[in-house]
Every structure is written in structure tokens, then in C-alpha cells.
Amino acid sequence: MRLKSGDRVRVLCGTDKGSEGQILKAYPAEGKVLVEGVHVVKRHTKARDTTTPGGIIDKSLPIDASNVAVVCSTCGPTRIAIDVDEFGKRFRVCRKCRGAL
After folding, report:
1. Which tens digit of pLDDT belongs to each residue from 21-45?
2. Domain that holds residue 49
3. What's the CATH code of the domain at 54?
4. How many domains does the chain have?
5. Which residues are CB-neighbours of 52 under 8 A, at least 6 positions away?
6. Which pLDDT band holds residue 71 (cuts at 50, 70, 90)?
7. Contact 31, 66 (CB under 8 A)
8. Which stretches are annotated as coiled coil (predicted)?
9. Looking at the domain assignment, is residue 68 inside a domain?
10. What pTM did the predictor assign?
């Protein structure tokens, strides 16, 4: 999985199709990412103690990493390629414009 926390992504399918957000957390073992403002559900919680109130809270759930595309600043949604410089350091680039992500 080539997605990292902080990447700007666009949702490709599902109920939130077309919405964009930033990756808050990546779960590479499960192949999922947590995107801000996407796949938000309501959870009914009970007050555990005086500091955590009960009620209905909004919670973001992870979505599959295959359902998002990284948004390049110059050419829009794209896939990611890996380039190697002359010192052997690997870095991620846009497949369309070859600009750094």
C-alpha cells in the first residue's frame, strides 16, 4: 500500500463518491485508510465516568484503500509510482506528470 497519512485523496466509489479529504491514519495490514469526513457513522455511547459524556457521537470509520485515489496538485486524481534518484533513495511520484507527491 503506497498511501500515507497526510495524503490528499478522492473517494472513487461508495456513498461518499467524489468527496475529498486527508488521510488521518493508514492501516497497511488491513489495507484500509481513515479519511477525514468520509464514512461517518453515528454511535450511541453510554457515559463511562464524569469526564466522558454519553450521547450520540459522529465517528469516522476506515474505508478500503482501493476505493481512494491520491490527488496530485497539478493533474488531479492519479496513481503513484516509485522513482529512484542517483543516490538510491526511493520517493513517490505522480504517474501522469512525474511530479513529487
Report:
1. 999 999 999 999 999 999 999 999 9
2. 8-75
3. 2.30.30.30
4. 1
5. 45
6. very high
7. yes
8. none
9. yes
10. 0.82
Total residues belonging to the chain: 101
Residue 56, all three cell numbers: 450520540
Here the cell at position 65 is 484503500
- Three state DSSP letters for 59-73: EECCEEHHHEEEEEC
Q: Is residue 95 part of a domain?
A: no
- The Cα 32–Cα 9 span in angstroms is 13
Please report which helix (H) or strand (E) contains residue 40, including its range. strand 40-45
Contacts of 46 (CB under 8 A, 6+ apart): 54
pLDDT score recorded for residue 52 = 83
In a domain, 85, yes or no: no
Provide the mean pLDDT of the chain: 92
